[in-house]
Design brief:
It contains five helices and 15 strands. The longest helix has 24 residues, at 245-268. It is of the alpha/beta class. Helices cover 22% and strands 25% of the residues. The two termini are 37 Å apart. Bound molecules: NADP nicotinamide-adenine-dinucleotide phosphate (NAP). Residues 1, 5, 8, 10, 78, 111-116, 118, 135-136, 140, 162, 196-199, 242-244 line the site of NADP nicotinamide-adenine-dinucleotide phosphate.
Length: 274
């Protein structure tokens, strides 16, 4: 996943589940021990010329013969009235970042996919009550998450309803929902609204360089090769049928292997880039 979400119940080898942050910390430790060099930087631009990639970020600059894009995905915004006004004042897209501010409070989670249900479970440990608002009467989330959510006493569901408005004073106090079956409007007093209505790939950095699909996901072949030779993509940013930790890890392994083979190929090529 692009964002380290809690709780991860479906990563192989952890039958009791573990927090997304713990999992990522372990990834980091393992990578450190394997000798991987980390260079924290915000990359603003990637250019490609003469079989080289130029990466720019602030006053930093790198030249690479190959690169792997693994920039993840970001949560979709619904665009309902009050959503942008109350962002950071009750509206959130990140339970692990903002959940602790809602200890003992009433929260609504919008959506019925893996993200919504996973985060509703996490938030139920902090909030007094979590109301999941979903537009259908069936969840999209995987069965393991559904089972936990249905067994959690302070998670309740408002089915076949969509969020129509978020309102309040300084901070969120109320939301309005509309039934998709009879159009009836209902309000709900909450202090927090967490929206999980889908993910969009963070592909802007390479949007002019590589081919994207209609959802802005980077198109790759099974070797994680993009439309530009030497440039690979892995994880939620690419056109993957499943966005999970385990699929991102697998993509990363394939992309790294493909990049290595690419470098070996150009190294053995008599006409090499200078
Ligand atoms: P998602 O699977 O696209 O689900 C989005 C949810 O929001 C769906 O329930 C959808 O309803 C609802 N929705 C979409 N547009 C809406 C709208 N305009 N109004 C109201 N509701 C709307 O997104 P996601 O849950 O963020 O998951 C994205 C990807 O990440 C998936 O591949 C997922 O498996 C993966 N993921 C995996 C894990 C995990 O494995 N633990 C955790 C998080 C995410 P409908 O169901 O009616 O379409």
């Amino acid at each position: 996943m692009g964002a380290a979400t809690d709780w991860v119940a479906n990563f192989p080898g952890f039958p009791d589940g573990l927090s997304g942050f713990t999992l990522v910390e372990r990834f980091r430790l393992q990578a450190d021990r394997a000798g991987l060099v980390f260079a924290p930087a915000h990359i603003d631009r990637i250019r490609s010329h003469e079989m080289l990639f130029e990466l720019e970020g602030g006053d930093q600059h790198w030249i690479a013969r190959s690169a792997i894009i693994a920039t993840g995905a970001y949560p979709v915004h619904l665009g309902v009235p009050g959503e942008s006004k109350y962002r950071g004042r009750g509206v959130s897209y990140c339970a692990t970042c903002d959940g602790p501010f809602f200890r003992g409070k009433e929260i609504a989670v919008i959506g019925g996919g893996d993200s919504a249900i996973q985060e509703a479970i996490y938030l139920s440990n902090l909030a007094s009550r979590v109301t999941v608002i979903h537009r259908r009467a069936l969840l999209r989330a995987n069965q393991a998450l559904q089972k936990i959510a249905f067994a959690t006493p302070n998670i309740v569901f408002r089915w076949e309803s969509i969020l129509t408005e978020i309102s309040g004073g300084e901070n969120v106090t109320t939301i309005q929902t509309k039934s998709v079956t009879d159009g009836r409007l209902k309000s709900l007093d909450v202090q927090g609204v967490f929206l999980y209505v889908g993910l969009r790939p963070n592909s802007e950095l390479v949007a002019r360089l590589v081919d994207l699909d209609s959802q802005s996901a980077i198109i790759t072949n099974p070797l994680m090769q993009t439309s530009v030779s030497g440039l690979f993509a892995a994880g939620d940013v690419r056109n993957t049928p499943l966005r999970q930790f385990v699929t991102s890890c697998a993509d990363g392994a394939i992309a790294a292997q493909s990049a290595l083979h690419f470098l070996e190929r150009i190294e053995s090529d008599p006409v090499r880039p200078s």
